[in-house]
Every structure is written in structure tokens, then in C-alpha cells.
Write a structure and sequence with these properties.
Blueprint lengths: L4 E12 L5 E14 L14 E14 L3 E13 L7 E14 L4 E18 L2 E19 L2 E14 L6 E12 L2
Antiparallel strand pairs: 1-2, 2-3, 3-4, 4-5, 5-6, 6-7, 7-8, 8-9
Length: 179
């Protein structure tokens, strides 16, 4: 079986002033993904396509002079090789608060929730995964555009396929460059 496909999408949105009280962007659109004429699954059926809303947003605002709250949202499709699924739908929401103690040191905490859905049944069941990441990070600014840090977190996956459920702690070193 082949997995050729084509997609077309259109998005519109707005971008906030980078020096304003609210910064970032919000884009919303429509995507149509269709399988190629010869794209058939292992049963000889044409793969299922997708038509629907897509979005990409990232917005932040200063709070109380020393804090910054950031929120993000993304919805799109991704390529899949699992079962007879040509794609999956990915829906991500995130929120983070970062507090600056001075011009060099900050501490942040955030949560990211990702819903992944495969539209075609696998063994008579639709697969849906809920991925959750909670993170606390400490950052140190080395210069005007360079920060280093350490992040500690907890990652988890709750799936409709119970054998795929997983949870683990995470530790990451950070190197962040902002042009």
C-alpha cells in the first residue's frame, strides 16, 4: 500500500505589537488533506482524508511587573504510519507563568496538554492519547539574548490503548537563544 496524499490549507490571523501589553499572534484556518488516487490501506480501501479547522496561537502578557504569562494553542494534522491511518489530528494547549526575581534569574511553571486522535479504528477501537507535561524551570540570563537553565517535569500518556499508558519524570538542561 502507498500513503501518498496532498493537502491545502489557508490561514488568517493577527499579530500583536511586540512592545504592547499583549504580545504574540493568533491564526485560524482550514485544511483539506486528501489521499492520493493510489493510496490504499492493507485492506485495499482508500485512506480516509481530513477537512477541518487548524490553528496556531501564542500569546503572552506581563503580570505585576515581574511576571509573564504565556498561553499557546495548536491544531493540525500529522503523518501517521500506525494501522490504516494516513494522518492523526493533534490538538495542543499550553500555559506557563514565569517570574523574574531580577534581570538575570527567573523561575517558571507550566502545563502542556496534547490530544492526539487517529481517525481509523485499530483492532475495533479509535486510538486517542492524552499527553500531559508539567514543568518547573529555573533560568539564568548570561547576556541580552542567551539563557541557560534546568527544567524538572512530569510527562504522562493516557491512551485508549491501555498498554500504551506511561508516566515518567524528566530533567532537561536548557540553552535558549533569542535573536
Amino acid at each position: 500500500p502507498t500513503r501518498d496524499s496532498s493537502s491545502a490549507s489557508v490561514m488568517g490571523g493577527l499579530e500583536f505589537d511586540p512592545n504592547g501589553a499583549v504580545r504574540g499572534f493568533v491564526k485560524v484556518g482550514y485544511k483539506h488533506l486528501s489521499p492520493g488516487r493510489d493510496s490504499v490501506d492493507s485492506s485495499g480501501r482508500l485512506y480516509e482524508g481530513f477537512s477541518g479547522m487548524i490553528a496556531d496561537a501564542s500569546v503572552s502578557a506581563r503580570l505585576l511587573g515581574r511576571g509573564e504569562i504565556r498561553a499557546g494553542y495548536q491544531r493540525n494534522t500529522g503523518f501517521s504510519i500506525l494501522g490504516n491511518n494516513l494522518f492523526y489530528v493533534d490538538d495542543v494547549r499550553a500555559i506557563t507563568y514565569e517570574h523574574y526575581f531580577n534581570s538575570r534569574i527567573s523561575v517558571g511553571a507550566g502545563r502542556r496538554i496534547e490530544n492526539v486522535e487517529l481517525p481509523v479504528r485499530i483492532n475495533e477501537e479509535i486510538r486517542r492519547d492524552l499527553l500531559t507535561t508539567d514543568t518547573v524551570a529555573v533560568r539564568y540570563r548570561l547576556g541580552p539574548s542567551l539563557r541557560v537553565g534546568l527544567a524538572i517535569g512530569r510527562w504522562g500518556r493516557d491512551s485508549t490503548f491501555d498498554d500504551e499508558d506511561a508516566h515518567r519524570g524528566t530533567i532537561a538542561t536548557l540553552l535558549e537563544y533569542t535573536p
